[in-house]
Structure formats: structure tokens, C-alpha cells
């Protein structure tokens, strides 16, 4: 099971969001309990005022008042009015200094006997259970003119719970809104903070493979300056290694070409002086030497055209007709030897590219066409501009053609189609693909004009455009009827 990799933005979000969430939660709890405590105190004060009013009414107006005189101070209707409430049930019980009930609900009498009398003028609050329900109970002792009264008031908790719920809702919504604002601002801030990294990533990703110049160190945050410096150091080392590799490949091409040419010459001279029975063997050795020289040249060309070796190629404006004229002088002898009619159709077209790489591309296309054409066939080499003014060059042969199922694979190194199993090393079209990739070109198969054979077109960027490095192999478009 694959897990999504952690990102810097997630780490920053966790680092900032978790403390913010903890602070908001703590603030919500503090606000809730503070508001609930204030509401509780307000309702307790209301009970206290009621208890003080009952105690004051039951206090004697003068010394020596009897119990009956005191009871006349509190009218039953007044007591009922004090107990009236639309949300809660309120019970009031007044006791004399002996603990005997004066007025009120006798339901509270068992509670009065269970609880110790409170100190004078100091209210005591508790939450006992009365008739299977928890109530808020106030116990108050009041003394006046030598007489002491004890007042107990119980109240159910409906208003208190409703008030608590309102306080909870009034606390949650603002804090949830605050949390949403914090998350929004945090995400936006993280995106803005990481934008230089994203810009750096886009700059590196969009760079051509052959651009090893250092990244600019201006207008970047100091935190990522070491990263850019490390990347520049790596680019410098890659550039140095690429230059060394290019020198090695150029030297190897020269050093291998000279002894191979000498060996071919010596074999030709030996064949002239050898008796007839050895000339056939020497001819086969010479043919094998030709194939080895050709394969060596192709392998070196493929290595030089690769991304690792071609990162610093000399790109300049080129005229395609000039490349075709050079190819005509290089491949005419081989075409005559194979009895192939080699023709060139030139139209004005210019592009920006590496001369030697495009020569290798064109040479391998022509060589493939000659190798796979039967004697007497025609090989056509053309260049021109398409309707979008994009320069192109193409080679068409009269050979057996490449099956549609193999057209994607023929660009792989060392792959040979069924028609070419005995000839070549399978590197010609791989070189074509690699050079096209270096130039941002497109390689496509077109319908041959004669109805048989192979017709390959390479569409190059216009001269005004700098060749760039595509992310994958140079695109091979589907067959385009022509």
C-alpha cells in the first residue's frame, strides 16, 4: 500500500496549525467556563435575593412578637408569587430557630435536617437530589431582633442548562469561524512562503538539458540560498564531467577511425597480392572490418548525441540545403556501389541546430535507406517548409518498409526489424531519435509516394526558436498521410 509522501507545506501546516488549534480550544474552554460561571452566579444571586426577602418578611417587627404574628408577615399569595416560574420548579421552606417549619414546602424538610445549619448571613449553595432530580439549593440563616430564621430555596436546573447550551453555542461558532480564518490565512501564507521554492523548481524543470549555467542567486530568500548554491555546484561538476566526456569521445573517434582505416587499406593490399583462393576470405574480412568501422562510428555518434555528452553543443543557424549537398557528396559513392539512384530535392529552409549532429541524423537516414533498398531502387532526400513554416527534412526509400507494429521500437538502440536482422547493428534510427530529441524535433512516418518503402520526416524548430529539451524521447507522431 503506497503512502503519500510528506511535504514541506504539510509540515509547516502541522507546525503552525496544531498550536493554533490548541490555543483556540483552550480559549473556547476558558470562555465557556467563564460565561457559565457568570451565569451561575447571576442565578444564584437571584435565589439569594429571594431568600433574603423571605427572611426579612418573617423577621419580627418588634420585640416579643409571637409565632402567629410572624406568620402574618408573609401572605401565602406572596409566597406563591415567589415560587412562580415558567421554566423551573421553585420550592421555599422557612424554619424558625428551633428548626420547625414556619411556611413553605415541607418537601425540603428532610434536606434541612440532613444539612448542617449554615453560619449566620452566609448563604450556602449545594446540588442535592430532590425527588430523583438534581436541584440547586440555597441555605440561608438570618437573624433580626433576637429571632433567627432559616430559609431553604430549591430550584430545578432547566434555565441553567438552557443558559449553558446557549453559552456553549455562542462560544463554539465564533471560535469555529476563527479557526476557519486561521486555516485559510495559514494555507495562503504557506503557499506564498513556498512560492520561491516552486519558482525554483519550475526554473530547473524548464531548463534545456544542455543548459548547465548556474542558477541566479538574486531575489531568492536566504533560507534557500544554500540549496541554490549546492545545485550550482552540481551543475558545475556536471559541466566539467561533460566537457571531459566530450573530449574523450572526440579523441576516441579519431583514435579508432585511424587504425581501422589502416587495417582496411592493408587488407585491400593483401587481397591484391594474395592467391585467388585467399582473396575470397580477405574480401569477407574486409567486409567485416567495414561493418565494425561503421558500427563503431555509430556507437560513438550515439554517445556524443546523448543528453550526458551533448549538454554544451554549438547551436547555430543552419541552411538545410547545405546539409543535403554535403550528404550528396558523402553518400553518392555508396549509392553507386549498391546501384541505388540517389536523388535530392532541395527547397529553402533554415533551422537552429548542431551541424555535426544533424549531419549524423541525415547520414544515418540515408544509410538506412540505401542498405534496405534493392538494386535499381530510388532513394529520395528532401528538405523544405511545412504550411506552418516549420523546417523539415526527410528520406524516402524503395525498400520493404517497416511494419506498423515495429515503428515505435525501431528507435530503440540495437533493435532491428524483421527485414534487417542480418544487416546493421540497429543504431541508425536510435541516433536519429537522440539527435531529434536534442533539437526538440519530431520524427514521423509518412506514407511513401511510391506505395512501398519507408518515408521518414524530421520536423525541426524554426530558426527563430531555440531548441529545447523535451521531457521524454523526441515525439514520434502517428503516421501522417501525405
Give a written overview of the molecule.
Helix content is 51%, strand content 16%. By secondary structure, the chain is an alpha+beta fold. The protein has three domains: 8-161, 2-Layer Sandwich (Beta-Lactamase), CATH 3.30.450; 209-312; 314-482, 2-Layer Sandwich (Heat Shock Protein 90). The strands form four sheets. A six-stranded mixed sheet has the order 9-11-12-14-13-15. Helix 1 runs antiparallel to helix 5 (158-206) and helix 6 (225-273) packs antiparallel against helix 7. The protein is rod-shaped.
Write the layout of secondary structure elements.
Layout: H1 8-57, H2 67-71, H3 76-83, E1 90-95, E2 101-104, H4 109-114, E3 124-126, E4 129-130, E5 133-134, E6 136-144, E7 147-155, H5 158-206, H6 225-273, H7 276-305, E8 316-319, H8 320-337, E9 341-345, E10 350-353, H9 355-371, E11 378-385, E12 391-396, H10 428-439, E13 442-446, E14 455-459, E15 476-480
Parallel strand pairs: 9-11, 13-15
Antiparallel strand pairs: 1-2, 1-7, 3-6, 4-5, 6-7, 8-10, 11-12, 12-14, 13-14
Helix pairs in contact: 1-5, 6-7, 7-10, 8-9, 9-10
Domain module count: 3
Shape: rod-shaped
Number of helices: 10
Major sheet: arrangement of strands: 9-11-12-14-13-15
CATH architecture of the largest domain: 2-Layer Sandwich
- Give me the CATH fold name of the largest domain: Heat Shock Protein 90
Termini separation: 49 Å
Q: Could you report the average pLDDT, rounded to the nearest whole number?
A: 79
Give the SSE string.
HHHEEHEEEEEHHHEHEEHEEHEEE
Number of strands: 15
The biggest sheet, with number of strands, parallel, antiparallel or mixed sense and barrel status, is: 6 strands, mixed
CATH C-level of the largest domain: Alpha Beta
Extract low-pLDDT stretches.
Answer: 468-482
In CATH, the homologous superfamily of the largest domain goes by the name: Histidine kinase-like ATPase, C-terminal domain
Helix content: 40-55%
Amino acid at each position: 500500500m503506497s503512502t503519500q509522501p510528506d511535504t514541506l507545506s504539510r509540515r509547516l501546516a502541522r507546525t503552525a496549525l496544531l498550536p493554533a488549534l490548541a490555543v483556540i480550544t483552550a480559549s473556547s474552554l476558558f470562555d465557556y467556563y467563564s460565561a457559565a460561571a457568570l451565569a451561575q452566579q447571576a442565578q444564584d444571586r437571584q435565589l439569594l435575593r429571594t431568600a433574603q426577602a423571605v427572611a426579612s418578611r418573617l423577621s419580627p417587627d418588634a420585640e416579643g412578637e409571637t409565632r402567629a404574628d410572624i406568620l402574618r408577615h408573609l401572605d401565602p399569595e406572596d409566597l406563591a408569587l415567589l415560587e412562580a416560574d415558567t421554566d423551573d420548579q421553585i420550592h421555599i421552606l422557612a424554619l424558625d430557630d428551633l428548626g420547625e417549619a414556619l411556611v413553605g414546602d415541607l418537601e425540603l424538610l428532610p434536606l434541612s435536617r440532613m444539612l448542617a445549619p449554615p453560619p449566620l448571613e452566609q448563604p450556602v449553595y449545594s446540588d442535592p437530589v430532590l425527588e430523583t432530580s438534581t436541584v440547586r439549593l440555597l441555605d440561608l440563616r438570618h437573624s433580626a431582633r433576637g429571632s433567627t430564621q432559616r430559609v431553604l430555596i430549591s430550584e430545578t436546573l432547566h434555565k441553567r442548562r438552557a443558559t449553558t447550551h446557549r453559552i456553549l453555542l455562542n462560544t463554539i461558532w465564533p471560535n469555529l469561524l476563527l479557526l476557519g480564518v486561521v486555516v485559510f490565512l495559514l494555507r495562503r501564507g504557506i503557499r506564498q512562503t513556498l512560492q520561491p521554492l516552486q519558482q525554483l523548481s519550475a526554473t530547473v524543470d524548464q531548463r534545456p538539458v544542455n543548459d548547465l549555467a548556474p542558477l541566479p542567486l538574486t531575489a531568492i530568500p536566504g533560507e534557500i540560498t544554500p540549496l541554490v548554491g549546492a545545485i550550482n555546484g552540481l551543475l558545475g561538476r556536471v559541466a566539467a564531467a561533460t566537457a571531459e566526456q566530450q573530449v574523450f569521445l572526440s579523441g576516441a573517434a579519431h583514435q579508432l577511425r585511424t587504425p581501422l582505416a589502416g587495417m582496411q587499406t592493408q587488407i585491400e593490399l593483401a587481397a591484391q597480392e594474395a592467391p585467388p583462393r585467399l582473396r575470397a576470405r580477405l574480401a569477407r574480412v574486409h567486409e567485416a572490418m567495414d561493418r565494425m568501422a561503421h558500427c563503431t562510428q555509430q556507437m560513438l555518434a550515439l554517445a556524443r548525441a546523448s543528453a550526458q555528452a551533448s549538454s554544451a553543443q554549438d547551436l547555430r543557424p543552419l541552411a538545410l540545403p547545405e546539409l543535403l549537398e554535403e550528404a550528396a557528396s558523402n553518400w553518392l559513392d555508396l549509392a553507386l556501389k549498391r546501384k541505388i539512384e540517389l536523388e535530392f530535392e532541395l527547397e529553402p529552409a533554415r533551422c537552429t541546430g548542431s551541424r555535426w549532429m544533424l549531419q549524423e541524423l541525415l547520414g544515418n537516414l540515408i544509410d538506412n535507406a540505401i542498405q534496405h533498398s534493392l538494386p535499381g531502387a530510388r532513394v529520395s532526400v528532401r528538405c523544405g517548409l511545412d504550411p506552418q513554416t516549420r523546417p523539415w527534412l526527410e528520406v524516402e526509400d524503395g525498400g520493404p518498409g517497416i511494419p506498423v507494429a515495429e515503428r515505435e521500437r525501431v528507435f530503440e538502440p540495437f533493435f532491428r526489424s524483421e527485414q534487417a536482422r542480418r544487416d546493421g547493428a540497429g543504431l541508425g534510427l536510435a541516433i536519429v531519435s537522440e539527435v531529434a530529441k536534442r533539437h526538440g524535433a519530431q520524427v514521423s512516418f509518412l506514407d511513401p509516394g511510391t506505395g512501398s518503402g519507408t518515408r521518414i520526416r524530421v520536423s525541426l524548430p524554426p530558426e527563430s526558436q531555440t531548441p529545447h529539451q523535451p521531457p521524454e524521447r523526441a515525439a514520434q507522431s502517428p503516421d501522417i498521410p501525405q
